[in-house]
UniProtKB/TrEMBL annotation:
SUPFAM superfamilies: Periplasmic binding protein-like II. Pfam families: NMT1. Keywords: Signal. It is found in: Periplasm. Belongs to the bacterial solute-binding protein SsuA/TauA family. The keyword Protein biosynthesis does not apply. This is ABC transporter substrate-binding protein. Residues 51-256 form the SsuA/THI5-like domain. The lineage of its organism: Bacteria, Pseudomonadati, Pseudomonadota, Alphaproteobacteria, Hyphomicrobiales. The keyword Magnesium does not apply. Residues 1-26 form the signal peptide. It comes from Pelagibacterium nitratireducens. Its main location: periplasm.
Length: 344
């Protein structure tokens, strides 16, 4: 029996027990459509949504989740607004914008993957962030997300990115290739892009993804629902959050479990890369639902200082977040104090 088969059999047993005991029952026989903006399980903790479906975790909670795959955030928001889905994984910036544009009942209820898995990589002779002074630093463009976040991260290290020569290069893979070719001395990229570089000799990770998020704790994506879904299917919303939280905890406790599941989901990626990624995600799982008040507030404060929100009055946290569903789940499961603060 394969690892996946064993996991599915176990999940099926749990689901049967839940049905027999009356626990974990969904309130609707209709599918609960979860809209995602990736076409296959991504090489980040967001894969927990795909794998919860594959490994039977949603079924074990008594909810029939159907993944609806779209290619871009606007399509996800449009699907949620038109009733073509019950929950959507979208950027916090997009959520705030759609609320400002009239969808005032949209609320974030959980975040399966809070942060972009960014890191700063550099040439080996740049031993510390302070050594970036006078060296070239590749960004997407001045004012881009990677530039803005890296400015915050370096500032937290007592370093000004303005002391470097900023070079606009475009997408992360292009920046990575420029670093590899010696055209820039340092740049920001995702852990996934770093892992796919064919040869990193002469390069190293200057600031890893955990330190990067610590320096700029900006929540990138949340799972949002409409007011109608919150009112009409609250138990199903909680069941989805409970499944994602349980699987996140299992992956945090046993990284090899994520590797084994991803080998099945992404046979195009080598086991060695998956094992490296699993270790890098050790502290990144949303074991408490990913809804830290401090981090969400920081994210909101930061976004409203950007050009995209210059014309908007800042929303209060309760105007775009509903902690009720995730707090109900944590009331059942308890909190995991090892990571992902439940600071409410």
């Amino acid at each position: 029996m394969t690892t996946k088969s064993m996991m599915l059999a176990l999940a099926g047993s749990v689901a049967s027990l839940a049905l027999m005991t009356g626990a974990g029952l969904a309130q609707s026989s209709e599918p609960f459509r979860l809209i995602v903006t990736h076409l296959e399980a991504p090489l980040v903790p967001n894969s927990v949504m795909d794998l919860a479906a594959e490994l039977g975790y949603f079924e074990a909670e008594g909810v029939d989740v159907e993944l609806v795959r779209v290619q871009q955030t606007p399509s996800a928001i449009a699907a949620l607004q038109s009733g073509d889905g019950e929950m959507a994984n979208i950027g916090v910036d997009a959520l705030l914008q759609v609320i400002h544009n009239g969808a005032t009942d949209f609320r974030a209820v959980t975040s399966p993957n809070k942060s972009l898995p960014f890191l700063i990589a550099s040439k080996d002779d740049i031993a510390t962030p302070a050594d970036l002074a006078g060296r070239s630093f590749g960004v997407g463009r001045v004012g881009s997300l990677d530039h803005s976040l890296s400015t915050l991260v370096l500032s937290s290290q007592g370093v000004s990115i303005d002391d470097s020569e900023i070079i606009s290069l475009g997408q992360p893979d292009i920046r990575a290739q420029a670093l590899l070719a010696g055209q820039v001395d340092a740049t920001t990229m995702s852990i996934g892009v770093w892992s796919e570089l064919p040869d990193t000799q002469g390069l190293h990770v200057l600031i890893d993804q955990d330190a990067y998020y610590e320096g700029a704790p900006v929540v990138n994506k949340v799972n949002a629902v409409t007011g109608d879904v919150l009112a009409e299917r609250p138990e199903d919303v909680q069941a989805v959050i409970r499944a994602l939280t349980k699987l996140s905890r299992d992956f945090a406790e046993n990284p090899q479990m994520w590797v084994d599941a991803m080998v099945e989901a992404r046979p195009d990626v080598s086991t060695e890369v998956l094992e490296m990624l699993a270790q890098s995600f050790a502290g990144s799982w949303s074991v408490n639902g990913g809804m830290s008040v401090e981090e969400l507030s920081y994210t909101s404060d930061w976004l409203y200082e950007t050009e995209d929100f210059a014309d908007f009055e800042q929303l209060a946290l309760e105007d775009w977040v509903d902690f009720g569903p995730v707090d109900a789940v944590l009331g059942e499961l308890g909190t995991d104090e090892s990571m992902d603060p439940a600071d409410r």
